Amino acid sequence: MKVLSKIKILFVFALVVFCACGDREGANGAETLTVSAAISLKDAFDEIGREFYTKTGKKIDFNYGASGTLQRQIETGAPVDIFASAGEKQMDELAAKNLIDNASRKDFARNSLVLIVPKNSGSTLSGFEILARPEIKKIAVGNPKTVPAGLYADEVFERLNLKKDLRNKLIFAENVRQVLDYVARGEVDSGIVYMTDASVADDKVDVVATAPENSHSPILYPIALIKNGEQKQSAKEFLDFVMSVEGQQILQKYGFRGAAEK
Fold it and tell me: pLDDT tens per residue, the chain (262 residues)?
């Protein structure tokens, strides 16, 4: 009886190990790559992921969110193979902690910062400097501590000497898509997002101004392999695909510009 019990225990253990391995590999033994990416990349990366799977048979599990939040997840040991950030700051801090493969790091896209209002709202807002007017009461922005778009917005406010006047008007969001939702639903008077975010909701919001390039740091998107990632070869293949002509064309389709473009 003791021998039978031991056999049963060993069988159950082997079954658990087998299932766990299967989960890591995905259906039919296919590798599953984990990519943590800024939520502003969602539409473009979803299509890039589909094309990558068609070409390689390798699936991607995308984890979208604010770049600062994704950074903290990686710092606490989240199982990630690639990080694509909407800001250099988050990637720089991971590099300082030796958590990325520095040789793999590349800037792969560029974006613009825009001021939006609800569609057909009749708003007279026409520029960032007008945000200080008393009729503008609520302005949605990303939390600058974790959301790169919020940090860029803060730089614009500083450059235009608006910080003091806007201090009590700002509604902080957890990511740039939440800002977009606030504006689209008419819960705020205006919001600051990337041009690419505004373009996917052009039936719900209007762009009234674009921040001058010299009013904030360059909005560059870096991508890099995570040092402790399990799927290193597949991760390199995905990064190369993002940088390829086809990958860049998909990004441009969703409004991103090339990293070297001014």
Answer: 444 444 443 443 333 333 333 444 544 455 789 999 999 999 999 999 999 999 999 999 999 999 999 999 999 999 999 999 999 999 999 999 999 999 999 999 999 999 999 998 988 899 999 999 999 999 999 999 999 999 999 999 999 999 999 999 999 999 999 999 999 999 999 999 999 999 999 999 999 999 998 999 999 999 999 999 999 999 999 999 999 999 999 999 999 999 987 6
Distance CA 41, CA 45 (A): 6
Residue of 95, 96, 100, 64 lying closest to 81 (CA atoms): 100
Query: CB of 136 within 8 A of CB of 115?
Result: no
Tokens of 246: 């086809």
pTM: 0.84
How many beta carbons lie within 10 A of that of residue 77, not counting itself?
A: 9
**Structure tokens given for 4:** 């039978």
